[in-house]
Specification:
The structure holds two protein chains of two kinds. Chain A is α/β, with parallel strands linked by helices. Chain A contains nine helices and eleven strands. In chain A, strands 7-8-9-3-10-11 form a six-stranded mixed β-sheet, with helices on both faces. In chain A, a hairpin with a 2-residue loop joins strand 4 (61-66) and strand 5. In chain A, helix 3 runs parallel beside helix 5 (151-163) and helix 5 (151-163) packs parallel to helix 6 (181-196). The longest helix of chain A is centred in the C-terminal third of the chain and has 16 residues, at 181-196. The two termini of chain A are 31 Å apart. Chain B starts with 12 loop residues before the first helix and ends in a 9-residue tail after the last helix. Chain B has a single domain, classed as MetI-like fold (Orthogonal Bundle), CATH 1.10.3720. Chain B is mostly helical.
């Protein structure tokens, strides 16, 4: 166990779609400043698990604890819907398809949550949004609409939108998978900066180099279960399981 | 010729203008009622519960299936009688169910049925990712509806709703048969009184046509605003 405070605790997360159980009881603990990469082939349940953490996919069973907010899931339902909303405020989310609100400008996308969820004043929210957009290198694009931006720029806005909520941890669901290869770098660069300033991040990714070099922990999911977990240096150089060895051999 | 449309006792200008006022009042009151019903029934038609969907389906099928003039008669005569039966049974004084109120309710209900279908299609074309992004920052279902879904549904639905509005403007003419002094009825009265039907009906045509022109300009502006975040092909 590490000494830092646990930010996100997920226990016994199960998820079934009809008769098919895609998550068979998964545990995860993220401490402050952890960068956890979740790897796995398609169908392993990795995206479903990430989406369970903020209940976008409602777990069939399990317990999620984020910074003093705890939600129990039973029979495919949260015990407390309001607690789910509070839990979501504490967790940022960056989607594969960006999902910026198309009817709002870049800066309005970033200000929306602070104003309407956190109840901040407009002026304060705008100053904060300008500051964050400046940090992700988009201060020139603030008044444009998302449709006028490249995929890489849209994803950086999406990261800014998550940061504006001042979350305890940020979830990334394959953040670079929908991008043209030449745009992947600008998004990874921002994520790298967030990691090095100590943000707690949980990332589903196919970027093996990023998982190996930036994460503090790696979790490998296989058929809805954790097949292997550990420090990236160890796992990538000397994997314990054959499935993970095969998985990384496809990328090397 | 222009004396016919003079303002005051000599001409029919003031009567026609008053009629236009009634026409606009009807349409502008029926519109919010219709939109409200449209949103309500489109939401019901997309509900998980089968019985709620059935309620929505019954409403839209009935309202779209009946001739509008029949709906108007049913509301004006039927509901008026019903209302006074209720008032009598609780010992209250009878109330007058005005033609204006009947017109607004009937036109609003018909508008609502057609609007529900337009809005149902629009709700179904929403990208679920837009809603997920709102859920992910912890918005309440109500906030998601008003701040994300409605503005986006609006964009998809605006052309269809604009059509319904122009139809509504013209359908107000139906209330002339329940003795409401709208533009249509005043035109008919003037035409009959002066024995100059051609002049007056032509004038009415012109007025309805101008209303349509103004509406189209307004709708085009609203569509430009609703589409502000959408990149057009070739731009």
């Amino acid at each position: 166990m590490k000494e830092q405070e646990a930010v996100v605790i997920a226990e016994g997360i199960r998820k079934s779609f009809g008769a098919v159980e895609v998550l068979k009881g998964i545990d995860l603990t993220a401490h402050a400043h952890d960068v956890i990469s979740i790897l796995g082939s398609s169908g392993s349940g990795k995206s479903t698990f990430l989406r369970c953490l903020n209940a976008l996919e409602v777990p069939s069973a399990g317990r999620i604890h984020v910074h003093g907010e705890e939600v129990l899931f039973k029979d495919g339902r949260p015990a407390d819907r309001k607690a789910v909303e509070r839990l979501r405020q504490r967790l940022g989310m960056v989607f594969q398809q960006f999902n910026l609100w198309t009817h709002r400008s870049v800066i309005e996308n970033v200000m929306e949550g602070p104003i309407h969820v956190l109840g901040k004043g407009k002026k304060e929210a705008r100053e904060q949004a300008e500051h964050i957009l400046n940090r992700v290198g988009l201060s020139e694009r603030m008044d444009m609409y998302p449709s006028a931006l490249s995929g890489g720029q849209q994803q950086r806005v999406a990261i800014a939108r998550a940061l504006a909520m001042e979350p305890d941890a940020i979830l990334f669901d394959e953040p670079t998978s929908a991008l043209d290869p030449e745009l992947v770098g600008e998004v990874l660069k921002v994520m790298n900066e967030l990691a090095s300033e100590g943000r707690t991040m949980i990332i589903v990714t196919h970027e093996m180099a990023f998982a190996r070099d930036v994460s503090t922990d790696v979790i490998f999911l296989h058929q809805g279960e954790i097949a292997e977990r550990g420090a990236p240096e160890k796992m990538f150089s000397n994997p314990d399981t054959e499935v993970f060895a095969n998985f990384i051999s496809d990328f090397n | 010729m222009f004396d016919l449309f003079a303002y005051g006792d000599a001409g029919w200008g003031d009567e026609l203008l008053a009629g236009l006022g009634i026409t606009l009042q009807l349409a502008l009151l029926a519109l919010p009622l219709g939109l409200l019903l449209g949103f309500a029934f489109s939401t019901l038609s997309l509900a998980n519960s089968g019985s709620l969907r059935l309620v929505a389906r019954l409403y839209t099928t009935t309202m779209r299936g009946l001739p509008e003039i029949l709906t108007l008669f049913v509301i004006y005569n039927g509901v008026g009688v019903l209302l006074n039966l209720v008032m009598k049974s609780i010992g209250a004084d009878p109330v007058e169910f005005s033609p204006m109120l009947a017109g607004v309710i009937a036109l609003g209900m018909v508008f609502g049925a057609f609007a529900a279908e337009v809005l149902r299609g629009a709700f179904q074309s929403l990208d679920p990712g837009q809603t997920e992004a709102a859920q992910a920052i912890g918005m309440t279902p109500m906030q998601i509806f008003t701040r994300v879904k409605v503005p986006q549904v609006w964009r998809f639905a605006l052309p269809g709703l604009g059509n319904l509005w122009i139809n509504l403007l013209k359908d107000t003419a139906l209330v002339s048969v329940i003795a409401l002094d709208d533009l249509m009825r005043m035109t008919k009265v003037a035409a009959g009184f002066t024995k100059l039907p051609f002049n007056f009906y032509l004038a009415a045509c012109l007025i309805y046509w101008i209303l349509c022109l103004i509406s189209e300009a307004g709708l085009a502006k609203m569509e430009r605003h609703a589409n502000r975040g959408v990149r057009r092909a070739g731009s």
